[in-house]
Amino acid sequence: MRRFTWCWLAVLALASSAWAADEYKIDPVHSRVGFAVKHMVINTVHGRFTDFNGAIQFDDKDPSKSSVAVTIKTASINTDNPQRDNDLRSANFLEVEKYPEITFKSKSVEKKGNGFVAHGALTIKAVSQDVDLAFTLGGPLDTGRGKLLGAEAGLTINRQDYGVTWSRTLAGGELIVANDVVIEINVEARQAAPAPAAK
Q: Out of 39, 57, 155, 173, which could bridge 21 as a Cys pair, Cβ 3.0 to 4.6 Å?
């Protein structure tokens, strides 16, 4: 009886391993976290964050078992203009010394049309808001040295909702820096190496 029980436990362990979602670590070298915002009404300024990390748990058989978590270092903001970047890091905008990270953590994932939606919490300056992050996937691609997964996502937020409240207006009442910020994410993630077997 004991041998029979151990056999079933082994089968269940193998089955649960086969059904488990695969974990992919975001490769920052082949990924981009960018944003775009209107400036002076007539122009769009593009920027990016250069320091970020994250993981995707992906179950291609049951996307509802998938998840995503991303952490962005606010001090890494870059718009290719040092004076503007220092202003964005200051108390006028992101207050990077007080709030060093922006995070997104999904609560659920659903298939929608040809893509997916990750429902989760976006946290900026310690303010968390529930958002719906629509994204598409590429892969998984088996390279022979592990799998690769690609993801493209986009989201528009109102910066005022997160305490990024600096505001000035032009003579006509238009905002110098718009409230709406478009977030653009292109990610390449590599399947994480399996944890070493316990001795």
A: 57
